[in-house]
Amino acid sequence: MELFEVIRRRRSVRAFERRAIPTETLEVVLEAANAAPSARNLQAYEIYVVSGERQRTALAGAAREQSFLAGAPVLLVFCTHAARSMVRCGARGETLYTIQDATIACTFAMLAATARGLASVWVGSFDTGEVAHILGAPPGVEPVVILPLGYAAEEPVEPPRRALEDLVHRMP
Fold first, then answer.
1. Is residue 172 part of a domain?
2. I need a surface site. Which of 51, 64, 72, 140 has the fewest CB within 10 A?
3. How far apart, in whole angstroms, are the C-alpha atoms of residue 109 and residue 76?
4. Helix runs in 38-156, H state only
5. Assign residue 50 a region: left if phi > 0, alpha if psi is -120 to 50, beta otherwise?
6. Is residue 13 part of a domain?
7. What pTM was computed for the model?
8. What is the number of domains present in the chain?
9. Is there a contact between 74 and 20 (Cβ–Cβ < 8 Å)?
10. Could you tell me the residue range of the domain that residue 68 belongs to?
11. How do residues 95-147 score in pLDDT, each as one tens digit?
């Protein structure tokens, strides 16, 4: 699929078929996340791949009872790893670059998933401490995005967007 078609086709999907994702498809998505740019190429993030039903259900509860999470065959949890960025980028790396790194990687994964026929939705509303506990994440590794992946069981309509004239500010 051509890049701009992928961008246009991506939708936020919250209903998934009960169909497994082939291992090779999931690996392509993870490789895309790993190819994302990061501050000083430090890749100050971690990705947890959650496929067990018990863990997906627990994460759905930790995400303020967003039960659709448990219905996705795979959840990718993108976490910051501030210490990786702090070493060379100091406080700005700890508080900003690590978040940017994790979220850019998640965006690359989301677009790669779309290109491979998978659906997803960005989930940022959850109890950070509870999610970290469920993952068994070490101190200093903090969840910032949960990305459920699966085959869509719904087809959302294209959402309205702001006009470029309202969004873009051109400077002479």
1. no
2. 64
3. 9
4. 53-62, 68-71, 82-92, 98-115, 128-135
5. beta
6. yes
7. 0.95
8. 1
9. no
10. 3-167
11. 899 999 999 999 999 999 999 999 999 999 999 999 999 999 999 999 999 99
